[in-house]
Amino acid sequence: MDLSGYPQLTNPECPWSPLREWGGLPNVKWCEETLCSWVSEPANTWSNLAFLVTAAVLYFATRKETSRTERFWPVATFWVGVTSLVYHASVTFVLQVFDFFGMYFFFGLIILLNLIRLGVVAKAALFKLLWSTIIGLTVFTVVVAKLNLPVQGIVAVMLFGALGTEVAATLKHRTQVRWFLAALLFIAVAAAFSGSDVSRRWCDPTDHVFQGHAIWHVLDAIGIGLAYVHYRQFKAQFP
């Protein structure tokens, strides 16, 4: 990573420098300028509040549900948001791994729910497999990163896994997909903003309000809410 444009990453006077020195730096630098502050990337950090708002909405929507799966949606959304928030506040490798830990909640849940719909996984095994997946992938992320391989590829594989299993389950049972397509649209637009950020096609490092990766967070939070509405129609099939 070229650090010439981001001197605060290695400034020993900055509050996160000891953790950066101990655990290393993330394998990617988003466009936003790193500040010498407890909140190193304000736009990329505070935009994660969108996930916490979605988590709160889902909590109130599911708090009276008897289904454990339904009640887990706000938990998964909360972890996606809070782990990403602390990662972008710190810009450290240790908390980047924590960020991936949060993303595995959502993608692991989606894939396993689709496998239940396909009859590949027993619904009673959902949470045991989910926690095993989250922990196993988090450890795998550390290994991949230490080998200097792109850990973002793990998320890409999980995204395609979620899409593939959703398509297979939909074709098998002929269910309605309008909410899933809406969620996919938001995620696709979010990915375009994030891609323009990391590629520097749209990049103003000094703008701490509008950043492509920050927009990714907000649109993804909406996408998770829409995905919940889609999977709610199958709740009788889940634990």
Report on this structure.
By secondary structure, the chain is mainly α. It has one domain (7-237): Rhopdopsin 7-helix transmembrane proteins (Up-down Bundle), CATH 1.20.1070. Helices cover 67% and strands 0% of the residues. The chain is built from nine helices and no strands. The chain has helices at residues 17-23, 42-46, 49-62, 68-90, 93-117, 126-146, 152-173, 178-198, 212-232. Helix 3 packs antiparallel against helix 4 and helix 5 (93-117) packs antiparallel against helix 6. The longest helix is centred in the middle third of the chain and has 25 residues, at 93-117. It is globular, with a radius of gyration of 18 Å. The protein starts with 16 loop residues before the first helix and ends in a 7-residue tail after the last helix. The mean pLDDT is 92.
